[in-house]
Structures are given as C-alpha cells and as structure tokens.
Amino acid sequence: MLKEVTATRYITPLREGGSLPGLVEADDLGTYVMKFTGAGQGRKTLVAEVVCGELARRLGFRVPRLVTLDLDPVLGLGEPDAEVQGLLRSSGGTNLGMDFLSGALGFDPLAFAVTPEEAGRIIWFDALINNVDRSWRNPNLLVRRGELWLIDHGATMIWHHNWPGAETSAARPYDAGDHALRGFAPDLAGAAAELAPLVTEDLLAEVTAEVPDAWLTGEPGFERPDELRRAYARPLLARAAVIHERVTGIEGDK
C-alpha cells in the first residue's frame, strides 16, 4: 500500500490545476502536492491518479512518489481564502499526496528535445489509460535535471464514470492528434513491443491494490472494493495488447 502520512501544515494553493490542489507539509517532513477528496471531481480522480501513476512507475516512467495524506479539517481554520477553507473542511480523512519536485520546470516542446523512443513510450502509455490531458496546451510533463516526469493522471480511464458502458468505452481508439509529443516522431510499435507484455493480470492486481478502500467503497454495482479493483484492471489488460493499432492522429504510427 501507499505510504501513509499526516498533513501538518497547509502552505499554499496551486491554482494551475482545476481541482485546486495545495502544497502541504507532512509529519514525515516531506512536502507534497495534495489532491483532495472534497474537490469537484471527487474521489474517482484520486483513484485514477493512483492506478495510472503506479502503473507508470512499474513500467519504468518517472512519476512523483504517491502517498496517502490524512487531513484534519482544522488545518483550514486559518486559511483566508473561503474557497480553499471550504475545500479543506470537506476533505477530512484520506487524501492523495505527490512528492513536490523542487526545481522542476514545465515541459516546453520548443525548448526540450524528446527521442522517438521516449515519445512513443509516453504516447503508448497515454493511449493505454486514455489520457486526454497531455496536450500541447497542457502537457502535464515536468523537466527536472534533464529528465521528463509524468504528472496529473486524474483525467484518465474515462470509462470508470459509467461502468455499465465501460467495455464499449475502453474499446474506442485513442486520438493523439493533440498530444504534446506527437511532433517527435514517436515510435509506437517499439513502445508496444516493449511495454505491452509487461501489463499482466498480476501487475494490474498489484497496482489496483494500492488504492485505499475508502475511495472504492460504496460504488454502485459493486459490493466490495476488490470487485471494483478488478473492474479497473480488465479494460487496461484488454487495451494493452491492441491499443497501438488504434492510435490516430499521428502519421506513420502503425
């Protein structure tokens, strides 16, 4: 399971994100970007962050370390911003934290070169998880010490917003025409050959086990958290074998 820490100080909101994440300190002396259960997108965003972030890590991508952050709503009492205070009050309990990458810069495709191999691996992964939030407008990539880091996977696996239609939704192609890395001659075939065999039932069971029960309990149609974990794994396992053949928007991607 993810490491459990407790938030001890709310530092500042990070207004770049639509969910109003915040920078916090915790009792392990770490500094984290905190995403809240009380945010408008709800706990499914946090589930997606864990499933996709931990899957990315196991496939060899650089992803900030994830932890669960226990929040006492009392931390919001001294916050002057009413919106932030309301968010803190509504998010007591288990939230998500991501290591704050000090010194990291936002990815600029005009200033940072990406190899076809790395571009192909990232686009293949985004196709696997159906990431609609890695565009040139908002790459959700950071550059730190000359290396690319993947962040913000809350807008993925859109099928988990409608489980009865999940199988149909997960079978749809992935449009990479707006992807931040489409201009770097991505080697999708090479990425698929390398990564697809790694996405196994055992790996996905390991990844989904990282999601706290508190974020899975009470989902309509599922009696137990482990049933929902298996539902998250099934579309990813099915997509891994074929998704490179269903990527559109990149010339010569087959």
Q: With helices defined by DSSP (H or I, 4 residues minimum), what is the helix count?
A: 7
Unreliable segments (pLDDT under 50, ≥5 consecutive)? none
What is the H/E string?
EEEHEHEEHEEHEHHHE
What's the helical proportion of residues? 25-40%
Q: What global shape is seen?
A: globular
Major sheet summary line = 5 strands, mixed, barrel
**Structural class designation:** alpha+beta
Strand count: 10
Compute the average pLDDT: 94
Whole-number tally of structural domains: 2
Terminal CA distance reads 38 Å
Strand order of the largest sheet: 1-2-3-5-4
Rg over CA atoms: 18 Å
The percent range for strand residues is 15-25%
Task: Describe what you observe in this structure.
- With 254 residues, the chain is of the alpha+beta class.
- The chain has two domains: 3-99; 105-248, no CATH class.
- Helix content is 30%, strand content 19%.
- The protein is built from seven helices and ten strands.
- The strands form three sheets. It has a five-stranded mixed beta barrel.
- Strand 7 (141-144) and strand 8 form a beta hairpin.
- Helix 3 packs across helix 5.
- The longest helix is centred in the C-terminal third of the chain and has 18 residues, at 225-242.
- The chain is globular, with a radius of gyration of 18 Å.
- The model has no long low-confidence stretch (mean pLDDT 94).
